[in-house]
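Appendix B, example 12.
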Amino acid sequence: MIDPGYTALRQRLHELGCFDYRPGRAALDLLLTLGLSAALLSAAAAFGWPWAPPLFVLGSVLFFRLGYLMHDGAHGGVFGEPTLDRRFTRIACAFLGALPSGWRYGHNRHHAAPNVRGIDGDQAERWQPDARYPSYFSAFLALLILRRVRGVRLPRSVLMLWIRDGFHAHRHAPERFRSELVAAVFGQLLQLACFCVLFGAWGPALYLLHTHIGLVFLNAVFLGNHYDLPSFDAPEHRAIEFAELQVVTSRNYPPSRLGDFFHGGLGYQIEHHLFPDLPRHGLRRAAPHVRAYCAARGLPYNEAPFLECILRALRFHLVPRAAQPH
């Protein structure tokens, strides 16, 4: 079901230029992201304590902003032309060491049915009954720092996501799996080689730390967008109109230039879910019109500060006090 008001809103955003594509801007972002992250990681290798750790963390965070460019291209928000957007996505994935078809499979399910149990697989631990913790600290460790794999707690890593996406690519896009796997392995080996050149014998360990920082960063940004908002079973969501489902299951972060840079457009999650192909630079301009649309429809326009959203997600996983042992 599509609301006519939603169609009219999309047309209005086109008229305002929100859908004007700027591929040069995305290409420049990619080059600057790679250059700045390389410079910061090189500086971390050159400087000693106390500069090396913050430079290393910031360099890793900047590198994994490439995930936002991969995301933009996969949604058709860079060129507005499918073939060119796919090529741009493959370039970003090659640097990241990711498999685009596998990632796109899971992400498309998320967009089609956000917060729908059994379909939306993003952070599916939300709905696991045993994923409940006695304190904020233990919830923080479980949600952002560690991941349980066959009963063992391991540091979360982007490598875990790429393995998952490799499985999806092999199963759902077998015709592209081999070429994507070769590109992904090359990207990972290139990163590892750079870390070995910069950090010598410490290179492999610091490369793994780099992938851990990347997932903590990306996971934290996503954590506040949907986590504790309403969720539905598969039969329930079919009775909900498209725009309503996207709005009630999404939350924005208050806009700021610094936040927009580090959130990669995901701070405008409501706008993004309503119009996934809306270029990133058009999200801020579209926001007041989307807010007015939600008010006219009686839909909530959820917005909360980033740190408050993280606390809400952690609180969602706490064991109810009545169930805690005394």
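The chain has a mean pLDDT of 93. The CA atoms of residues 13 and 72 lie 18 Å apart.
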